[in-house]
């Protein structure tokens, strides 16, 4: 739910100190005299790089913006953000061509920066015996001036650098050093955000329910986040012949919506014994203060299925995007009869009943999927046809492809009851 994408931060104005919100600096690590770090430290450093997952990534504006600012403020022709891998240097920004730029660490000046753990300034590389014979000095880009700052993540692990390069010999003032330091903090903050989002995405993926096959019944779902994590979720729990299921769609996108979705998921899981209406009312009472404080709400389909009889008791909390597809080819939309979670305190939800007969299916989706079809409710007819004409693997492959054009998280759930075998 919710529309639009986050706006990019405003660029710092040229020739002024880059002002960033205060952030905790890593503890000073000191200078490493030997270029060969201890094996455990190097393993940890390489593991941190792998966790970032940017070694084979395409250009990202979040980093290109930093190097553009660096070139402008420090008046140099080239600024880079580099990641120092085991034996190569990967240039994350700028991208010089459609393919990622790599070079051997042995030819890299940034390798020395990472080793020494502090800003490295080389005013004339041809006069410095450490660099005079390196290929980047003797050949293109003919480096003369270099200044680089290590980028630190995790427990003081130096994974890369931000550096500026010039083909002319030049000095480097204290003010310029402070600017490079600020830009380094900015780049580190972006790396930390990537690491956090990656861990959050992995955790959310592990929490997604596995396909359920129970004789004549099958249940599966798909969630494709717009960003790294989703504010939608599906969940189900089985106890004997009772199957409880949820599809929840939190207003908004990204980390804030995912945090709220996690709280809602936990609140429902803590009440497995309650029927749908009572569960919705209890969760709303518990989370209303938090939802009010954050200005958020959530729509939901909460259902309990009797696997023996096919009886379905459900509450639609402002959702309205659930279809009951009958074996005879008819379709019923289960219209919303209740308000979303987080709207008000003294509200109740009406529990409705249906029966899933052999050959029937229940399909529900988030409004992110509906938006792919222009946000019109008549798109549900097209989705119903997709459900009828595809088995679950093919259906979710189609929906995943549709999600590429979405501007929101996309979630869908399908519960099927197979047809009774024909009498012999």
CATH class of the largest domain: Alpha Beta
**Main sheet attributes: strand count, strand direction, barrel closure:** 6 strands, antiparallel
Point out poorly predicted stretches: 1-35
The CATH architecture designation of the largest domain is 4-Layer Sandwich
How many strands appear in the DSSP assignment? 17
Q: How many domains in all?
A: 2
Secondary-structure element series: HHEEEHEHEEHEEEEHHEEEEEEHHHE
What is the alpha-carbon Rg in Å? 28 Å
Output the structural class.
alpha+beta
| General form | elongated
Strand content: 25-35%
Mean pLDDT: 85
Number of H/I helices? 10
Distance from first to last alpha carbon: 50 Å
Strands of the widest sheet, in order across it, are 3-2-1-6-5-4
- Can you tell me the CATH topology of the largest domain? Phosphatase 2c, domain 1
Instruction: Give the CATH superfamily of the largest domain.
Output: PPM-type phosphatase domain
Can you give the helix content as a percent range? 25-40%
Tell me what the structure shows:
This protein is of the alpha+beta class and 424 residues long. It has 2 domains: 39-202, 2-Layer Sandwich (Beta-Lactamase); 208-417, Phosphatase 2c, domain 1. 32% of the residues lie in helices and 25% in strands. The protein has helices at residues 39-52, 61-74, 110-116, 135-138, 174-207, 254-269, 276-294, 367-372, 379-389, 392-403; strands at 78-84, 88-93, 101-104, 120-122, 145-153, 157-166, 212-214, 217-224, 232-239, 242-250, 298-306, 311-317, 322-325, 331-334, 352-355, 361-365, 410-417. Strands 3-2-1-6-5-4 form a 6-stranded antiparallel β-sheet, with helices on both faces. Strand 13 (322-325) and strand 14 (331-334) form a beta hairpin. The longest helix is centred in the middle third of the chain and has 34 residues, at 174-207.
């Amino acid at each position: 739910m919710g529309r639009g994408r986050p706006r990019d931060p405003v660029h710092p104005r040229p020739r002024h100190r880059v002002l960033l919100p205060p952030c905790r600096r890593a503890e000073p690590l000191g200078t490493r005299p030997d270029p060969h770090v201890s094996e455990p430290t190097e393993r940890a450093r390489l593991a941190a790089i792998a966790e970032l997952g940017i070694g084979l990534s395409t250009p990202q504006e979040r980093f290109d913006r930093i190097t553009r600012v660096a070139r402008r403020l420090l008046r140099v022709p080239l600024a880079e953000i580099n990641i120092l891998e085991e034996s190569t240097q990967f240039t994350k920004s700028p991208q010089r061509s459609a393919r990622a730029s790599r070079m051997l660490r042995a030819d890299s000046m940034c390798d020395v920066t990472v080793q020494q753990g502090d800003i490295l300034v080389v005013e004339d590389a041809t006069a410095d015996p450490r660099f005079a014979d390196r290929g980047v000095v003797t050949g293109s880009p003919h480096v003369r001036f270099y200044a680089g700052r290590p980028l630190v993540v995790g427990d003081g692990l130096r994974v890369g650098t931000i550096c500026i390069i010039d083909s002319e010999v030049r000095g480097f003032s204290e003010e310029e050093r402070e600017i490079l330091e600020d830009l380094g903090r900015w780049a580190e903050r972006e790396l930390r955000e990537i690491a956090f989002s990656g861990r959050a995405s992995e955790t959310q993926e592990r929490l997604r329910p596995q396909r359920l096959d129970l004789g004549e019944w099958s249940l599966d779902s798909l969630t494709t986040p717009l960003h790294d994590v989703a504010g939608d979720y599906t969940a189900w729990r089985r106890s004997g012949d009772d199957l409880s299921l949820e599809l929840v769609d939190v207003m908004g996108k990204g980390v804030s919506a995912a945090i709220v979705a996690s709280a809602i998921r936990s609140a429902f899981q803590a009440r497995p014994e309650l029927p749908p209406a009572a569960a919705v009312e209890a969760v709303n009472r518990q989370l209303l203060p938090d939802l009010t404080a954050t200005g958020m709400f959530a729509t939901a389909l909460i259902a309990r299925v009797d696997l023996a009889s096919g009886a379905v008791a459900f509450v639609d909390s402002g959702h309205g995007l659930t279809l009951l597809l009958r074996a005879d080819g008819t379709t019923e939309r289960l219209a919303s009869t209740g308000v979303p979670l987080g709207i008000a305190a003294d509200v109740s939800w009406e529990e409705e009943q249906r029966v899933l007969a052999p050959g029937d299916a229940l399909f529900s989706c988030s409004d992110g999927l509906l938006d792919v079809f222009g946000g019109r409710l008549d798109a549900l007819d097209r989705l119903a046809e997709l459900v009828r004409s595809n088995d679950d693997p093919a259906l979710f492959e189609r929906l995943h492809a549709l999600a590429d054009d979405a501007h929101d998280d996309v979630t869908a759930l399908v519960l099927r009851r197979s047809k009774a075998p024909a009498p012999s």
